[in-house]
Structures are given as structure tokens and as C-alpha cells.
Amino acid sequence: MGKSELKITGIKILKFVIILLVVDFCLGSISNQIFINQKTGKFHRSTYSIYEAKEDILIFGSSHAHRHYVPDVIEKELSKTCYNAGAEGQQLLYHTALQKMILKRTQPKLLVLNIDENFLYKSSKAYDRLSDLHPYYEDFKHELRPILGLNSNLIDFKLFFKSYQTNSTLIHALRYYLSPQIDYKGYRPLDDKMTPKKAAIHEKNHSEKEFIEEIDDYFVKALKDFISEAKRNNVKLLFVTSPNLIERNISNNESLNRIKEIADSEEIPFLDFLNAPKYTNQFELFHDPSHLNDDGSRLFTTEIAHFISVNIKI
Amino acid sequence: MLFNSIDFLIFLPIVFSLYWLLYKNLKIQNILLLISSYLFYGWWDYRFLALIAASTVVDYFVGLQIFKSNNKSTKKKWFLLSILFNLGLLGFFKYYNFFIESWVNSIATLGFSIENTWTLNIILPVGISFYTFQTLSYSIDIYKDKLTPTNNFIGFAAFVSFFPQLVAGPIERASNLLPQILKNRAFSYKILSSGIKLIIWGFFLKLVVADRAAIYVNAVYNNVESHDGLSFIAATVLFSFQIYGDFAGYSLIAIGVAKMFGLNLMTNFKRPYFAASISEFWSRWHISLSTWFKDYVYIPLGGNRVKKPRWMFNLFVTFLISGLWHGANWTFVIWGALNGLYLIIEAIIFKNKRTGLIHIIITFVLINLAWIFFRANTLDNAYYIINKIFTSPGHLYIGSGDDITASIYATIAIIMLLLVEAKKEFFDSLFSISKNKFEFVRLLGYAILIFIILYLGVFGESQFIYFQF
Hints:
The structure holds 2 protein chains of 2 kinds. Chain A is of the alpha/beta class.
């Protein structure tokens, strides 16, 4: 192996690395601008929550939060501003990360976390979906590193590349640019009404579980972090479970029981609507067996607002 | 260790640097290759290293004994030892439970009740089908006087366990790889550059084409009762590119990594979906396995130099075994049988070589029909899917949430792949990025390809499909 061969190799590698970095910087920056400047859609909502939201009350949670909490109702009932930062399919790790990023900039008066009863159960999808946070890594390394690091080794190295930060977000941006996804302060109403027949079909077609019924210690830690971060910033917390169309036996749900224990020990108010009789079998209030339609959501949000006005001083 | 993992990203430069630092001492260089290969494999499950080590030791000594023996029957005994040992390993780890369960089920279908207490909790060692076939070919070639065994144990062990192709091929012949391992290699920028180019394209195939397509394919094939014919057609076409991207991607990365180490592996895929007949498809798809079966099963059975019925039988049996090699499941057996049947029909109907778009499309459709058996989780699912395709087109599932964008990215990636391959297949002399005379164009082309991988790829460190075989 001659020295000249090594020298040639070194120079060529250097040239390639420089070109690669320039390409990554240029195309990655364009992609990042497209991402940040979205006006509607889930990424717009998370970007707004992280960089702009200054509302008094923020709602956190998965699709049950996103679809069940009507900020206009809360604002009217409590005379406080509200934004729904719920994100479909996202679980505790995401919400904890989102909370940390928001609290770095602003201190809302109240955070409402809508709890899914299976939040603490092991779910690989909960980790996979953390990639939604990649575009914010450059601005929130300290907050995101511990959480994104759970799903991926050498996260600093991977997210060094601008193109990876906004991996596969272009179609999403184009889609909502061409066909804007309307939301009302983060809330998107569902319009359908359930019938017993529809419920039966739904039950048959949606049997795939996204979790294993074992407690994930990282999710427990995320929930505890969520609570301690809020306390550290003097932000009040309220935990809520959303109603279901069909009554279910949840007494043996270890995840929910554990969440209740934690809420109890940390003195966090916990409103449990899971099998609330007011909603059970009320087909006209539901879009599908676990999601309220707009009528149901308005009723549900009103109840939450009443509870807040009576029990939580904000 | 997976190619598409951060671990490998750290492992490769370290081994590569050490390897070329030691270029003056072939023996130490090969020891490094051996240690690296065992580390690479042991990253999954170190317990199975003993199997590779045993396979290496047995075939090394058997090879020497076959060569030394003057007596034909002694030669044969040593040869049979190698066959029994390698096929025994494969049979036990891969097929034991399958045959027991199949036997119990067949007894049950005859109306007898039998309690199955013989199945065992066996973990299939990664890549066992690949390295046992590689070592088998070594013994067979020596027995048939086509190869002289090596006395260099380290070199032989490095050949058996050579990490780039250890777990999913290409299945190398000793006559190609072993002499290269036993000879001094020289570093040059050219080998490094051509290796890296192959690796980049391999990653595009795996991370962008295969893993994007997999999202839609899994959503449909893992929940068959919720889907209709159109969705099955879309999922099957996407699967054909998923398996191609996955496997050809792995092969290219393996060939590229080997090139970086100054070693040339055989080409494993040659644009298979441009084949105009099934026989041409099999000369372009998983070439290292196809030629293995041709040399060690089909030709020993008599090949095509026999009467026509026997020739048909030979074809069918070869593909039946090939199907079984792919997995201990009846879905793979039917897939193999279907391909065998295609070849028989082709041999009966067509006398001349076919070309043209119509034949390419017909071949693609037939191959896709067979892929249904390959991908379906059970035989019942496969029949259900085929039935739905022909009787109930229904509506096309376009996915929900991120599934939708995954399908669009997969489609974009497949179009890119087809454009590149069509250009190579039909207009190779036209403009080329990889062979462009301007260095800047070449470097820029590959930098943009890396951008596409980083921007569109799936980085969940997913397994390669062929690891299970």
C-alpha cells in the first residue's frame, strides 16, 4: 500500500464528505423550512405547541385528547385560553418530551393529560413514533436526548444530518398544503355517529393491539418525569380518562391501576370517565367505540371544565 | 450485527482500518477477518458460534481426508460424514419441528388422535442455511475432484465465516472465495470506492425500497380478513419489490463490504424483474443459490440430459427442495413447487428464448402469484388472498396515518429503482453517474443518493427477510 494511494484516498474521501455535507445542509435546510412552515396538520400543531403556544391551559394526550377536548368550550366556561396539543398515536414518552420543550419557553397554568388506560404497557410503536420529534432536536437537544436515546443509539450522530431530522415529512407537508387540515385550536371534531351494527363491525376489524400487557419501566419514568417537571414549573396537573362506548372490565388493567397509584401518591386530581354511565351505550355521542364525536366531545369538555372551575384554582 | 445498525457503522471502519494496517502479514490479516466475523455473528447470539466452529472443523478435516484417501469407499465415507453433519445441523435446527408437526397433522387428518410431545423449543440460528450450504459445496467439490482442499485452517475458517456474506449470502463457492482469502490483497482507492458505491445502492434498496414497501405489505398481509382483492394485488406487487430490495440490498452491501477488503464475491441479482421468462428470472434471482441447486441437485439428478419426463421431474424436485430451503413451512414448499411447475410448462410450450415487454409483464405477474405463497403467513391465508383477487376486487386500502405516506414513498422509490435498472438493462451506454468522467458529478450523485436514503429511508434497524432462512 503506497503512500500516494493513501493520499489519493484521503483527498477523495475528504472531497466526498464535503460535498455530502453541503448537499445535506442545502437540501436538509429546504426540507426543514418546508417542515416548520406548515400551516396545518399534525406537525403544524406540534410546532405551534413548542414554539408559540402561550395559552393558560394545554391539553396533552393521544387521539383521545386531540379529538375529545374542545378549547372553545374550556375558554368559554373558564375564561382562560386553551390549546389542544394532543397528538394521534402518541404516548407518554412523546408527551413528556413535548411538555419539557413547552415548559422551557412558557408556563401555562394547567396541563390536562388525557390518560389512555394502556399508556404504561410495552409498545414498540410508542418508541417508533418518537421520530416525530426529530425535527426539533437541534433546538431542544437537552430535553430530547434522554427520550430519543431510548429508541436509538448515537442519536447525536444520526440527527447531525439535517436530511435525517425531517425524514419522510415532505409528503405530509405537501398533502396538507394542497388540502389543509382544519383544526380548532388543535381540536379536530369527528362527525360520525355510531350504531350497534357499526360498533360490531368496528370491533371485528380493529382487533390488533399495539401493546403487550407488561409494564414498561421507561413509560412509568416518563409519567413521573411529566409530573415532576410540571411541579418544578409550578404548573397544575389534571389527569383524565376519556369515556368508552362499551363498558369494559378495567379493574385488572395493571397499567391504569399503576397510573392511578402514581397520581394518588403525587396528589394529582384524576377524573375517570372510562365507564362513565352518562356515556356508556350512548351511540349518538360516539364516532367509533373509543372516540367521541363532536357532540360527545362538547359534552365531555363541559364536564371537565366544570370540574376544573370547582376543584382547581388557576 | 445488522448492516443497517449503528453497531455496524462503528464495527466496519475499525475492522477495515485494522485489516489494511496489517496488509503485510496475510496470516494475521486472516486471523483478524476470522475474529471480526465471529464477533459480527456473535452479536446476535454467541451460543451459535459453536455451530459455525463445528461446521468449520468438520469440513476442514473431512476435506483433507477425502483428498488423502486413495480408496473410493473411504472417500465416500468421509464425504457422507460431511453431508450427514451439515444436513443434520440444518435438519435439526430448521426442520425438526416442521416435520414432526406435519406428521402429527397428517395422522390427525386420517382420523387418529395423537398427542404431540416431540416438538422442541428450538431457536433457528441466523444464517444456518447459508453457511451449511457453503461448507457443503466445499466437501462436494473435493469429493468430485473439482477442488483441492486447503491446509490453511485459519484461511478456511475465515472463508466459512466471512462476515459480509455469512448470514444471508451470496453463498460463495470455495473455488471463488478461498483462493482470494489465501492470497495477499492490495489496497487501492478503486476497490474502496467501488465497494462504497455498492454499499450505498444496497442501503437505498433496503432502507428506502424494502422497508418503505414493508409498511403497506405488513398492514395488508398481517390482517387479511380486513382487505379485498385490489389491496392484495397492491400489497403483492409491493412485496415483490420489498423482497427484492431487502435481499438484493443485503447482497450488494455484502459484495461492497467484501470489495473494501479486497475480496470479490459473486453477483447475486441481475435485474430479475426484467426477465422475459421464468427460467431467465431464475438466472437473475439469487444467482448464488440457483447455481448451487443447479450444480449440486439438478445436475446430479440428471439435469436436462435425460428423457423429457425425467427432466421435468428433475426441475420440479429441485424447486421443491429450493422452496423447503427457504423455510420450514408449507407456504414455501408450494412456492417452490409453483416455480417448478412454471418451468415445466415453459419448457413444454416454448422452444425459443422470449424477449419483449409482454413476456416481461407475464413473467412478473406469474412471479407475483408465487410470491403470495412466499409472503402469506399460512397456506389458508394464501388461498384466501388468491380467491379474493379473482372474485372480490373491492376497494383499495390506501393505509391510515403514516401508512399512506409510506406507500407513496415506496412507490417513488420503486419508480427510481426501475428507472435506474431499465437504464442499465436497455441503455447502458447512455449517461452514467457512477462512471461519469467528471469526478464532481460522481461524488455529487452519490451524495444526493445518501440524502435520499437519509430523507426517505426507514431507520428502525429492521431485520433482513432472508435472515430467517
